[in-house]
Amino acid sequence: NADDETAAVLLSNLHSGREDEELGWPSQILCSVVLPKFLSLEKSSSRVLMSATIEFCKIHQRAAEYGLLFPLILRREGINNFICEVISRVLKECWHLGHISAFCQKLLCGRKEDKRRFLFLPCHRELIADDPT
C-alpha cells in the first residue's frame, strides 16, 4: 500500500549508519511512523515496510528496542500472529544472541524502581500496557 511505501522510503533515507543517542531521532521515527502500522496489524506486514524496518533496525538496535519492540510486546490487546512475525524477524535479523538475551532479561526481570524508557506517541497510550503481566 502507498502508506507502507512512504514509510519505507522515509526509513531508508533517514538512517545515517550510526547511533549517537539511544532515544534520539531513530526511536522517534520508529514510534511515530512504523509503530502505529505494526500496532494495528490484522494481516501480514507488507514486504516493503518490513524490509525497510529490518534495515533501519540493524543500524539502530537500541531505537528498535525502545521505540518498536517493547511497545509491540506490551500491546494491551496482546500479540497476534502478525505482530509476532514482526517481532521475530526484527530479533532474528537485527540482533545477535547476547542482545536478545539482555532484551529478554529487561522485559522479564525489569526492576520496579527503574522507569522503563520505551517510546510511543501519547495517542497510543491506551494501546500499550505498563508491564507484561
Q: What's the short version?
A:
The chain has six helices and no strands.
Describe this structure in words.
The chain has about 130 residues and is an all-alpha fold. The longest helix has 15 residues, at about 25-40. Helices cover about 60% and strands about 0% of the residues. The chain has helices at about 1-15, 25-40, 45-60, 60-75, 80-95, 95-110. It is globular, with a radius of gyration of 14 Å. It has one domain. It contains six helices and no strands. InterPro entries: FANCE. One of its GO terms (cellular component) is Fanconi anaemia nuclear complex.
List keywords for this structure.
133 residues; mainly alpha; 6 helices
Layout of secondary structure:
Elements (H helix, E strand, L loop, with lengths): L1 H13 L10 H15 L7 H13 L1 H13 L7 H14 L2 H13 L24
Helix pairs in contact: 1-2, 1-3, 2-4, 3-4, 3-5, 4-5
